[in-house]
């Protein structure tokens, strides 16, 4: 990848990679850091990354950085003796479906959340998701199925069953 190709990649992919990182459910500041680190990593490895694979490389790098950051924060919180996550409470009258979906997404493991977002929101194929997250097509299908089942179950416990 040449310097011109890298600069073009920055222009074309920056918004998509940032949108993916934010949709994974992390804080915006962490997402900005992860995207910036992904582009820095791409530049460090620009000679070995094909231009056609650059977007996939960036999304994978940003995702791995976010997961690493998330896990690090979880360890820090555990050692700070903060109470564990509280169970979800029943919705009140002002609770809407969008909030319920966001809460349900937050409960999913990060890999399932990322796959769900890439497939259902961004419209990526199983092969593209597998390449981005270093998973096989079958693993992507299984994780997607499990994520959808978990989301359905979570939403049902919040009062958003099939009757709505």
Give an account of the 3D structure:
- The protein is an all-alpha fold.
- It has 2 domains: 1-84, Rna Polymerase Sigma Factor, Chain: A, CATH 1.10.1740; 86-159, Arc Repressor Mutant, subunit A (Orthogonal Bundle), CATH 1.10.10.
- The chain has helices at residues 3-23, 28-44, 54-79, 97-107, 110-121, 126-133, 137-157.
- Helix 3 crosses helix 6 (126-133), helix 4 (97-107) packs across helix 7 (137-157) and helix 5 crosses helix 7 (137-157).
- The protein is globular, with a radius of gyration of 18 Å.
- The N and C termini lie far apart (51 Å).
Q: How would you concisely characterize the structure shown here?
A:
This protein has 164 residues and is an all-alpha fold. It has two domains: 84 residues, Rna Polymerase Sigma Factor, Chain: A (Orthogonal Bundle); 74 residues, Arc Repressor Mutant, subunit A (Orthogonal Bundle).
């Amino acid at each position: 990848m040449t310097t011109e190709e890298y600069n073009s990649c920055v222009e074309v992919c920056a918004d998509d990679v940032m949108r993916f990182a934010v949709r994974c459910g992390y804080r915006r500041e962490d997402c900005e850091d992860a995207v910036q680190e992904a582009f820095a990593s791409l530049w460090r490895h620009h000679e070995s990354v094909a231009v056609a694979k650059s977007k996939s490389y960036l999304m994978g790098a940003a995702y791995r950085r976010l997961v690493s950051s998330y896990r690090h924060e979880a360890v820090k919180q555990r050692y700070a003796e903060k109470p564990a996550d509280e169970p979800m409470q029943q919705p009140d009258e002002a609770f809407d479906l969008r909030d319920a979906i966001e809460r349900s997404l937050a409960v999913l493991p990060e890999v399932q959340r990322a796959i769900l977002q890439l497939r259902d929101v961004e419209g990526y194929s199983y092969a593209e998701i597998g390449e981005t997250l270093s998973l096989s097509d079958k693993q992507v299908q299984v994780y997607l199925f499990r994520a959808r089942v978990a989301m359905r179950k979570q939403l049902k416990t919040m009062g958003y069953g099939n009757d709505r």
